[in-house]
Fold each of these.
Amino acid sequence: MIRGTCWVADDYVMAYDIIIQEYWTSAIDPEDNSKWVMAGVKEEFNKENAFKDNGHTFIVAAHNFAGGGKSIEHVITGLMGAGIQAVFATSFARLQFRNAINYGLPFVTCDNIDKGCETGDELEYNPETGIIKNITKGTEFQSVPAAPFVAEVGEAGGLMNYVRDKIAKGETIE
Amino acid sequence: MGMTITEKIMARNSGRDSVVPGELVWTDINSVMTMDYLGKTCFDKFKSLGKKEVFDKNKVICVSDHLVPPPNQKFATMLNEWREVVKEHDIANFYDLGRQGIAHQIMVEQGHVLPGTISIGTDSHANTYGAVGAVGNAIGVTDAAVAMATGKAWFRIPQSVKFNITGKWQPWVMAKDLSLHIMGMMHWNGHLLYKALEFTGPAIESLSMAGRMTLCNMTVDLGAKNGIVAPDIVTERYLRNRTSDAWEMIVSDEDAEYDQVYNIDISDLGPTIAMPGKLDDTQPIEKLIGQKFNKAFVGTCTNGRLEDFAAMAEIMKGKQVHRDVNMILVPASQTVYLEALRAGYIETLVEAGAAVDTPSCAACAGIHTGVAGDGDIVLSAGNRNMTGRMGSKKAEIYLTSPSVVAASAIRGEITDPRTFDI
């Protein structure tokens, strides 16, 4: 069970606004990437640690979160470094959806979640059942539960750990 | 039940007889591509997996494209670290400065992508590989590291969407116009999220490999998983001198199931332009005739090929770039550059007053040469036009085809190449 406050995004939050151009060639490092995460999404976040300092645990978004076609993983590590433990949206862009799975950060698809939350609301997410409770408003949402493989990778702490473990044990990947 | 080409490729490369959309599989990877600014991280991650050697030294393709030649010390140092790590792993196919090109162009042009197989790259436009009937997919450095170690990647089988393209191409209308037309029709990253797009029909069969690459290239910007054109005689001719590896003609079954089918007749399709800021805000050229601009740019993995240079040279021969316009042209690879030189296209274009830059991603991603400054209005044949993409947030980018850029650069305002005096 994960509990904390949420930040509610608009439609079409783009990957290249989550991590702006200046930082595309930076090293992939959660702490470093989190300093300027969301800098292009809102002017108020275009300051060092501005998004991170809000201390939110969740992001709630609408359609096509992290879209616009950037495959850089800084987007995911930046969010993780800023303390984000799950993102709920009506849909995700595929490149970052994939990266999120590979890092074990839940990108959770949930219809209507964007309409049922305001920034600062306290939410509680149960990864096993997929139920998202809005404690502040007293409402509840059923999200799409993670596929078994996705859950397995999540439990391993990401694809790197998952594959490293298989290689160490001499197991084949299939 | 039959399968689509993408499903068939996924099935045979995961050792299955059949797959259905939604299924999750690990597949064999033909080639893994990575480039200068992400490559070192790929190798670092690869090493941390506990393997000493990559799965196949001939199948890990390394390309210098975003940072070459280095315009500053930061990039020069990054390139040095990159070269060191590529050397350390004894990578057979390293396309460094001098033999470079944009990674996606290199992958197809040098025969590293085979029909019926799956290749991945750490850059979003890896969808380009679909042009030769392969599944081409963009992935992050984690997936690349895993594939370097194991020769495999995981995929969820996508639903397929068919675009059946009929009709006859009008003069000077290019694959880019069809890409932008579909962008406007389907909306940017809208209804095609996660889908496999298959382009078929007489107007695709008559399309060159360069055109097919442009079309598949931009499917990532539609939010799709991949774009693909079934291999045919055009593919066979194109690959004949590029690879000695055997490959099979995998095509969709006649009774394959599609999530959606769209029929487009291109007979009436004219030059198409995406308005600054949003790829899906497209307009027919008629609405923008006379729009002024001061920078013209043709290059990138979308439109930096020989055919694009040929079209521009034909339009610009004996003419001069307008005095209010700076025109920058960047061949997609050294091979394209040399071919364009030999064919006389470069000479024609330089005589016309265009600047030709060394093959690289150039200003497309806003981090290399030719970037846009405050107040610039750019007419570009690249792939993205969001605010700040080519540099300044105070610049505007109109996206279109190379033939429109060429005709317009002469007049200093957006000009329809169909009505231009050639």
Amino acid sequence: MTRATFSIWRGDRGGGRFEDYQTDVSAGMVVLDAVHQVQAESAGDMAVRWNCKSGKCGSCSAEVNGMPKLMCMTRIDDLDLSQPVKIEPIKAFPLLKDLVTDVSWNYAVKKRIKKFKPRTPDASDGTWRISQQDVDRVQEFRKCIECFLCQDVCHVLREHNKHDEFIGPRFFVYTAALDMHPLDVEDRLEDLKKTDGIGYCNITKCCTVVCPENITITDNAIIPLKERVVDRFYDPLRLLWRKMMGK
Amino acid sequence: MVDCQTHEHDVLVVGAGGAGLRAAIEAAASGVSVGLVCKSLLGKAHTVMAEGGVAASLANVDDRDDWKTHFADTMRGGQYGNNWRMAELHAREAPERVRELEAWGALFDRTKDGRILQRNFGGHRYPRLAHVGDRTGLEMIRTLQDHGIHQGMEVFMEFTIVRLLKSGDRVIGLFGYDRERGRFRVFKAKSVVLATGGIGRAFKITSNSWEYTGDGHALAYEAGADLIDMEYVQFHPTGMVWPLSVRGILVTEGVRGEGGVLRNSEGKRFMFDDIPDLYKNQTADNEEEGWRYTQGDKGARRPPELLTRDHVARCILREVSEGRGSPHGGVFLDIAWIGERLANGAEHIRRKLPSMYHQFKELAGIDITAVPMEVGPTTHYAMGGIRVDADTQMSTVSGLFAAGECAAGLHGANRLGGNSLSDLLVFGKRAGEHAALFAKEHSAAPIDGAEIDAAAAEALAPLERGAGADAESPYLIQQELQESMQDKVGIVRRESDLLAAIETVAALRERAQRVGVAGNREYNPGWHTALDLKSLLVVSEAVARGAAQRKESRGAQFRDDYPEKSEELGKITHAVRKGGDGRMQVEAEPVRELPPEIRAIIVENQE
């Protein structure tokens, strides 16, 4: 048992400050355990969002010592306890209270993306035949737990506040999952270019670094989508063709 | 009446896990207006944690499978305490519900010929669980969520419902608050579907998230509905035991389905020592045969590690209590050993059990492809819940429907793995369909302002008391309740413990009257915990009372003082309801008789 100090952001829309709390930590504890302990011992009204506590629901996103993390998967043994552990809310969304932010924008964005549209069933009983290889290809994107840490760290949202013009890494992954779904026949390329703002991404790969599910967001989702957009809209031969056809 | 916003819908669904989402989708499809209220953000509900798969007799892997076998397996697993009609509907309709998910975008693992792959699981005779690695629940909830948001339902995220509103005998709405700002809301509805999940937070060691406080059970109980089978709480045999802070987190049964074995500290596969008569014919009696079964040999019988969860949990407990446990009070679950049999063992484990690999690596610093895991029982699932009509899912209160874990009947005394994901699809759909029908046949009724005022005053009391010196802490009461339930109403039960637990619940209820919290109404977890206590106390009392009345051991209920099954009590269901004096009553009622044609299916599948 060691005594450790946690410097936790307390505040709401009106402002706030870091407050230090001391609590005992033991082997194997994660940051969320410490936050709960502080809550039960000395800060009963401290707001924190969490659910499964095993890295599967993506609720407890926060910044721990400046790094976007799931608090339930961040072990205290991995942190330097000689100084206070700094815990603060994610930054790309409006603060509600303490460690909780208003992430509702993400839900509104998702609703805008064209939904899954399957091809006609392969068999007369209305089912499809899909190879395991095709399932495996999109599996990576479907692992996403919607913790929004990638959104938090993306400078287009975090620093430039382009929430109206840019859907963020999470929803490029979502679009990639739909686009590369073996049954999907919908066309989302025009939306990617016009309303989703894929051009804003300048592949700094910060999103990939913070993803707790280790999804290779930039290389496997965003870049292939960018390539498709470029092929469709910026290919010189196609441009010429479109001009000639008056489209 | 207190100042609060009112929303109006035809059908109001409470809970946005698999059952709630499926109900909302179905109701919306029939053209009524639908509201969906959930305690968390959308897509974070407990369904996300389901790992192993969804049970449906698609017969893609073994063509001997059909709904009748699934039905018979479910009844046997439930020790025939199941509502047979629910078990029948469930087995018949599960395949269609799974195929429908695929049409909405779910991607399951495939067979060689491109159909949905199915895996072995405890108590299922044939490979029956459609799955995606070990994250089937995430795939399902995300599919339902992403499909659902385009069906025209209105979603209210991070809301808690504290009271059902009635007019005469009928439910006409709900009263609750948004967790974000603490503002009260009234939801008027012509019918209500409860899909609030389970009660795991009543126990100390649980695989369940904070949301599982039995809200739906308690709301229904307070509104006069019957609860049944509350004594049957499933303890999943394999939860993590170390580090302490992750104790209880689920380790999927899929580990055993893929060939994982249980060993004690002497290295012995102790499950071979105790195979119940009911399963003798279907269980391998040597390691070789068990291994062949997990690798798809249709002639082999299943290894004893895949016996029903109640039995495996008790065997683990026996090993630990007799001194043959692992260093941290569990036993060893070894999947790494399959490397001796498969050329690419480690790679195979990472592909079939990716989130288990990840979970142990990150939380325990253990590589499961190289060393065994330490596991022990964890509170997992409530078989008991709101009594519903099998076909319509309506409770004993008019206009109030229930589906998923908070409803009861399908699983009897013990649930088979994989049957909860199919449960929530089959009965979520039925609940949504019938709630919509009910809404079309009934009109909205006016809300009684005085009742709203009373509910608001009750909800605000802990804040008004404040966290003064004489106020009780909600966290402390919750903790004491969890400890009492864990110690006295756990896997092994006895009369004296159960009676003591009932007294503890009464004492804690008394103290809960004086609970006080600091801060204001904005996102205040202390206040939320204080309000959740009411539900936790109701379900805890119901579990303890049901368990005390059932003087036998059956399925999930094991009584140290009555270790045998009683034929007479096998024909009894315990119904829990609120008496006229406000006290909880438990009544013994006869189980519905099986009609001859249904009995015949069970007999056919006996061997």
Amino acid sequence: MGFLDYFRSEKKRSASLAKERLQVIVARERGHRGGPDYLPALQQEILNVVRRYVEVEDDAVRIQVERDGEYEVLELNVILSEE
Amino acid sequence: MARIVVVTSGKGGVGKTTTSAAFAAGLAQAGHRTAVIDFDVGLRNLDLIMGCERRVVYDFVNVINGEANLNQALVRDKRIKGLEILPASQTRDKEALSVEGVEAVLSELSRTHDYIVCDSPAGIERGAHLAMYFADDALVLTNPEVSSVRDSDRVLGLLASKTRRAENGDDPVREHLVVTRYAPSRVGKGEMLSVDDVMDILSVDLLGVIPESTAVLNASNAGVPVILEDKTDAGQAYADLVARYLGEEREHRFLDENKGLFGRLFKG
């Protein structure tokens, strides 16, 4: 690493920001892949229902379809806040 | 039996047609009988990039509809022996391509060729679906840029589920990553995703990196597949890519910026 890198460190940000954002969105989209088209809507409605009772973050509801032999398993995770 | 290779990316403007032309030309140069098909119905462009636009008489849809036979529609490249182009139709009817029609054309080509390169249109509509449906291999192109990487990931999902190999439960389509318009100097400054970043996100083996290069526009202006410009960086990068695809081990060049004296002094 040359000493010019020191002056460049400010600029490191945009590429690493791009990578972080991509990792998040790609992981989420892969979770829905192969699943039925209604998954995102179902996810949103569940989020709305949960919110009638507790306050949660936008990404508190995670939903995924797993195939297990002849069965399809709908996996649902709801993350409640700390309090 | 020919091996069918789709060149795809999801996003437009990433270099599918440039890559299809270069890749097909490289395979033919290596002595393989190669046909390259333009699947972009309504927006024919491969003929221009290959420099044979004035010799197009019939097209892909004419063959499917039985209005011409394959031999009449194939345009033979004048520079490279064993290279033929099947142009897209300029019809506005996007339904003109049918699964059965495409399958019939591919299986006829398959008897007389070693490789069939399918130049996919952008998007994930019918043309793109049919371009990948019968593929054995896929060159998945991506620019080191967020929307392009995301779209490529989407296309990888489709290759794994919406192809004949996936539907029949055969071995999956072999996926190869090609990063185009790569600017090492910007990567060095942290302004552009690196090849390693893109590979981390997409988890696909890297086949080639094509540097951002003035040679690409110059070649398309002249209607010459850029791989034939063998003194240029992009031309050499495509030559490496084809050699790697054919099983040769070649180190990736053009990953580092061409440092001037200053850069060499300050970067250890």
Amino acid sequence: MDAKTWKNPIIAWVDKRLPIFTMMQHDLVDYPTPRNLNYWWNFGSLAGIVLVIMIATGVVLAMHYTPHTQHAFESVERIMRDVNYGWLLRYLHMNGASMFFIVVYIHMFRGLYYGSYKAPRELLWQIGVIILLAMMATAFMGYVLPWGQMSYWGAKVITNLFSAIPLVGDAIVTWLWGGFAVDNPTLNRFFALHYLLPFLLFALVFLHLVALHTSKSNNPLGIDVKGPQDTIPFTPYYTVKDMFGLGAFLIFYLAFVFFAPNFFGEPDNYIKANPMQTPPHIVPEWYFLPFYAILRAITFDILFIPAKLLGVIAMFAAVLVLLFLPWLDRSAVRSARFRPIYKQVFWLFVADCILLGVVGGHPPEGVWVPLGQAATAFYFAFFLVIMPLLSFIERPRPLPSSISAAVTGKGVGISAHGVAE
Amino acid sequence: MKRKTLAAAFATLLFTTGAAVASEAPKLPAQSWSFSGTFGTFGRPDLQRGFQVYKQICSSCHAAHLLAYRNLTDIGFTPQQVTDFAADFEVEDGPNDEGEMFTRKAVAADRFVKPFPNEAAARAANNGAYPPDLSLMTKARVGGPDYVYALLTGYKEEPPAGFALMEGMHYNEYFPGHQVAMAPPLSEGGVDYADGTTATVEQMAKDVVTFLSWAAEPEMEVRKRLGVKVMIFLVALTALLFALKRKIWSDVH
Ligand code: HEM
């Protein structure tokens, strides 16, 4: 990284001792980016902006919020009614959580489609999976804070899952609760952790970006950058494209905030938590529904392992399996554009995830049970069977010789196995 | 005991059947509310009539503890009217300089005084049933305002043949399970509207639901108004950014 000579003497002085301006120049301005990125590449920067919005609104909410079972619900309503623009802060934060997951799920499907998890980006992808886990923990604990019926019962049901662990399960649950029920100690620690985790997320995002800028962006063709003719500097090209994407995203996000702020929420969460009264239908937030469906799909014991434990294992495995993706998919071709079979199975997988979400929102009875089981089976088969198998049986279409050749319409087709077609 | 509750909680997770009860309820008829949609607002006369219904009928059983009397100026009452409404109620205050608690007249800054000092007292007066707080009611039920309206107008004198109605319960088409402990609260001419509107059951139901919708979302009008401005700004900004993006990228494609 060559230190640039800065005209402004103050900037030059600082930069000589602490090269932050050189770093910014390097990573936000000069950063060579493939010239053919499509709009699916906007979602990473959007996720970063949503994280900043969540932290900003969250810190101000925390100034007015009271983490006590007797006051939490009322303090949130005070924010809604008596704090200046408190309703705006809260609705931004509440809907921001949903937006965060929408953006990140799209970001991940993008990676899945274009093979962005393959060498040399394995660690980049795995840090992403850890980010997803941290986000899930943050959102789960945040949802408990307003201390409504779903907050309370959701917390109870999910923490209870740990009781499935043999021998130490009950002890772990008591430890998580800080007592013998979900109560004030639980709410207190959830608030503390809900405040802490986003900053951990911030650090993880930083690592994610270091890894990104080391191996550089993948692109819709999935082929490596061959030289400067394949790239353009990040600024102004992608800065302006990201700004435009941000504008479009804000229209979507704020339409919910201003005109349908409770669209993603459950009416039950406007009833104050009542440990004596179980709501008829306990459902988590929409972004957890696919995992909830997988949890409930296992209704049978296998050998000596009880169904409940298997369900919990399956649910965690559904996320953790993503960590192994770089080695489950052995195909040398990254982009699904050149993988005729994978491309179709990919869309089946997307449909399967949506189906799991729908199943997760219904009580597990009637047709929803076998449907959930079939969808769960396909979910795991996609990663554990189809992906490894496709690596061998699929014959990829010829790859363009370079990004610039593909963009300008020239270039000889060479297949992944080096065979001209 | 603890294990039992754990098991029970998990059973509700795995085998929730409660929704079956809900699903047998008939579909809620959709009402046309002045406050729905992007530009919807509350009519001030409707709100004031709704407040009258709440005050004269519902408030004898239901609290609305998230509202303060001062909030009523937002629906068009004068500060004097608000002071007068509040003055009808007594609140406990103190301790005074002698260390004694005392009661005083409620003032505009006080929250709506609850009809019962606590849940047990409310249940004792209502045959064991608890009249829930109404401040968030329209946000706290699936169907929102349509549900509350349907509930208030959905009573049947006689349950259908073969329906076993319990002692002291009332048949309602829209309440989950159809047996509700609340007696039909509205009857023809139940209030004497200050503005001379005829107090039919439908009229009162509509008015009180409008009032409760405001009570649940007092920020709604400000929110939507600000939203329209923000949207206009964002659409213009995004269009400009799109043009800028096209211009900057013109040498790449
Ligand atoms: C990764 C980013 C974050 C996510 C995904 C997230 C998620 C959530 C969710 C789902 C809720 C419940 C919303 C509701 O039903 O009202 C919530 C509430 C809350 N969050 Fe966050 N949050 C994040 C960051 C933060 C940060 C950084 C803070 C503070 C420093 C914070 C403070 C709060 C507070 C005080 C509440 C309770 C008030 C309320 O319910 O509106 N959050 N959060």
